[in-house]
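Bug #2210: token dump truncated for Alpha-D-glucose 1-phosphate phosphatase YihX?
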Amino acid sequence: MKNTRIKNIIFDLGDVILNIDVPVASQSFAELSGREQSEILAIFNENEIFRQFETGSMDEAGFRNFIREILEFDDLSDEAIDTAWNSLLLDLPPERVELLKNLGTQYRLFLLSNTSSIHITQVNKILEASTGVKKLQDLFETVFLSYEMGVMKPDPLIYQKVLAQAGIKADETLFLDDNYDNIQAAAKLGIEVIHVQKPTTILEYLKDYAV
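Reproduced locally. Full output below:
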């Protein structure tokens, strides 16, 4: 049901706007390195590879070199690493972009994503190929990215930063994310939330908010 107090909508990216499959990346690195996927996952978790890259602790070159180091594969090319890393990014349905354009005529729209610079470059390529829109910044008033902010969801600080920088009030803001912990953290700050769960998409969740 539509909340008439809402003036602002914040969207997560993965599995909210863009379809993703996170385990595909570890499988891609497993195939590259000749290891089992379970071993790759263990290595990534032990080294907090996602957290380090997605909070800006490493730049792109540092990330690629770290991948070579932890996989003990010095000959792995930048292109091969980027391709494997980006393999979790799937498709971006054009109808979701049309919904964003519609909502943008009535609400202030923002993006808040735990992500890396390599992923964002590829997402923009997928976006343009599927919809003709060149970059995410063309759809949102502000694009908030964890690697640029130095903090990631569900840390309450990231939501506080978004509210402060955008100059918006929590109780006038709706946040959509597929991760339960991220949703809960935002809700505790007074933000209205929608937990996006497949197979339901934002088209159904936001039908009352669209024109």
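Output looks complete on our side. The first strand starts at residue 8 and ends at 11. Marking as cannot-reproduce; reopen if the truncation happens again.
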